[in-house]
Amino acid sequence: MTTTQGNTPTATRPELVTIGLMSGTSLDGVDAAILTTNGTDILRHGPSLTVPYTPELRARLRSLLDKATTLSADDPLIRDAEQALTDIHAQAVAALCHKAGKSVPDLIGFHGQTILHEPGRTWQIGDAARLAAATNTPVIHDFRSADVRARGEGAPLAPLYHAALLRNHAPPVAVLNVGGVANVTFIATDGTILACDTGPGNALLDDWVHQHTGQSYDQDGALALKGCVNDAVLERLLDNPFFARPLPKSLDRLSFHKGMAYLSDLSAADGAATLVAFTAEAVARTPLPEQPTEWFVCGGGRHNPALMAAFAQRLSGIVHPVEHLGWDGDALEAECFGFLAARSLLGLPLSLPTTTGVPHPQTGGRLTCAGLLPDRMRACALLIAEQTATPLIRTGG
Ligand SMILES: Nc1ncnc2c1ncn2[C@@H]1O[C@H](COP(=O)(O)OP(=O)(O)OP(=O)(O)O)[C@@H](O)[C@H]1O
Ligand SMILES: CC(=O)N[C@H]1[C@@H]2OC[C@@H](O2)[C@@H](O)[C@@H]1O[C@H](C)C(=O)O
């Protein structure tokens, strides 16, 4: 059946080969994935890869998080970081095209690096015009601002992608992404898509492990598995009004940072075990209207056996990594931003009242074709004219 969502009936929409690029709150690098989609259906998954940040760039970005509220977009600290960050994204696109044996995709979805996320304001850095010129590909970026301007949370944005993946799966079911921050997409028995950030993912644990061992994360949960949960500290960490707040809701990477002071008397191993329990218990306390029968876990946290054991212990319902469904849990967020880029181009919603609290289904993202070579520019103009009423925003070039 042909359905109409946005401007173009589904049956006549083009197949777009997208590259989605996500650099998440863990600050570990750029994930890149190829996805073919018409903005509604996921037609083909392509290859994916990760380009890690250098320790120097990671440290630079980490220090920007602490200063973000005091910086303006034209501050040299931001400009310099944006250049370095964008060039790594361009490298990721080139490496992925090489891996896939493709020249260039139709469209890139460039999330950018979140350096600040608070009520009424969200800030992802990255230079979309530089990326478009470097890759000779139209780029959709700035995915979250339209939702925030419309009084939504601006996050999470993965739910419509998760819902598209789960279209034929029996509800109630949840996808849990455990990145720096953790977020859930819940499909209720009646098909409603609910979502929110649940609490910390790996970020607090990463910071704790870095402070105590110099490593950037607790590989295979080795440290946490040696420790014991301190229940008194855990309850203090959970004594935060965020957990009782109804959905939808979202978080900054640093939202729970002050709570790290409660761990000061714990050994490295007990602190790690307690932070693992904090992540899992925060998910368990998420006020969902009914309990999922199955949880599918994606993001780097699913590689941590201590975390997976804590989810299995504290959540009702069966807990699986998303590989159980044949998905790639390391590529999912990058694929999501390819999917959302296609939706943006077609003027389709990226968020719903039940996923970000935005009053109406909301599209978003901005398109730049800056610096494209003339042939490519013509091909893009035709595609855009055929498929959408989205205005072509030319940011230079
Ligand atoms: N083998 C492993 N053992 C333990 N933890 C791991 C392992 N592999 C990855 N991780 C954890 O996963 C994190 C990276 O997760 P991911 O790539 O999903 O983050 P992200 O993309 O920044 O997330 P988000 O955007 O969702 O916040 C690492 O910082 C680390 O904590
Ligand atoms: C503001 C921001 O970048 N939020 C990220 C972050 O990382 C996980 C969680 O917090 C989620 O809300 C979101 O990313 C995913 C991709 C999302 O929008 O669904």
UniProtKB/TrEMBL annotation:
- What EC number(s) has UniProt assigned to this enzyme? 2.7.1.170
The record's section on InterPro entries has:
Anhydro_N_Ac-Mur_kinase, ATPase_NBD
Question: Do the record's keywords include Nucleotide-binding?
Answer: yes
The pathway noted for it is: Cell wall biogenesis; peptidoglycan recycling; Amino-sugar metabolism; 1,6-anhydro-N-acetylmuramate degradation
Sorted keywords for this record are:
ATP-binding, Carbohydrate metabolism, Kinase, Nucleotide-binding, Transferase
- PANTHER family, A to Z: ANHYDRO-N-ACETYLMURAMIC ACID KINASE (PTHR30605:SF0)
Report the superkingdom from the record.
Bacteria
This chain's function reads: Catalyzes the specific phosphorylation of 1,6-anhydro-N-acetylmuramic acid (anhMurNAc) with the simultaneous cleavage of the 1,6-anhydro ring, generating MurNAc-6-P. Is required for the utilization of anhMurNAc either imported from the medium or derived from its own cell wall murein, and thus plays a role in cell wall recycling.
A Pfam cross-reference name: AnmK
Question: What GO annotations for molecular function exist for this entry?
Answer: ATP binding; kinase activity; phosphotransferase activity, alcohol group as acceptor
Q: Where does ATP bind?
A: G24, T25, S26, L27, D28, G29, V30, D31
Q: Which family does it belong to?
A: Belongs to the anhydro-N-acetylmuramic acid kinase family.
Keyword Hydrolase set for record? no
Biological process terms in GO annotation: 1,6-anhydro-N-acetyl-beta-muramic acid catabolic process; amino sugar metabolic process; peptidoglycan turnover
User: Which protein are we looking at?
Assistant: Anhydro-N-acetylmuramic acid kinase
- Known catalysed reaction(s)? 1,6-anhydro-N-acetyl-beta-muramate + ATP + H2O = N-acetyl-D-muramate 6-phosphate + ADP + H(+)
Q: Which organism is it from?
A: Acetobacter indonesiensis
